[in-house]
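FAQ: What does the model actually see?

It sees only this:
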Amino acid sequence: MIHYSCDQCGRKLAPGEPHYEVKMQFRLVNDPLENTEEEESDVDHLEELGEIIQQMELNGNHQHFPEQKKLKFELCAECSRKFEENPLGRDALAEQIGFSQN
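And it is asked to produce this:
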């Protein structure tokens, strides 16, 4: 039997208890102003990919491209609600720093 716990608060979730799965994908996005469409049409992407693979083989580096990363979290209902309200945790940082009220 699979046992789940909330990745935010650490509380163990009872079997069959509804919980939420949050998936995040990070990927590097190039600056659209760097290349114009005219410059982009001149690029041979297969040739570039071949060069990257060849370089990886020469370096003995067979890792995934660092430009992408996927994360998955299990959240209880309460932590899911908090995450929905503030997905980047901006308020938490101000609380940790503890600014004075003056």
